[in-house]
Amino acid sequence: MEEPSSSELAEKIGLKTRAQMPFYDLIIIGGGPAGLAAAVYGASEGLSTLLIERQAPGGQAGMSSNIENYLGFPSGLTGSNLARRAVAQAIRFGAEILTPQEAVGIRVDGPYRIVKLRDGTEISCHVVIIACGVSYRNLDGVKGIEKLTGAGVYYGASMVDALSVKGEDVFMVGGANSAGQAAIHFAKYAKTVTLLVRGDTLNKSMSRYLIHQINETPNIRILLNSKVTEVHGENRLEFITITNTQTRQLQTVPASGLYIFIGAVPHTDAAVGLIERDANGFILTGQDLMQNGHMRPRGWTLDRQPFLLETNVPGIFAAGDVRHGSTKRVATGVGEGSIAVQLAHQYLRRV
Ligand SMILES: Cc1cc2nc3c(=O)[nH]c(=O)nc-3n(C[C@H](O)[C@H](O)[C@H](O)COP(=O)(O)OP(=O)(O)OC[C@H]3O[C@@H](n4cnc5c(N)ncnc54)[C@H](O)[C@@H]3O)c2cc1C
Question: Is residue 140 part of a domain?
Answer without folding.
Answer: no
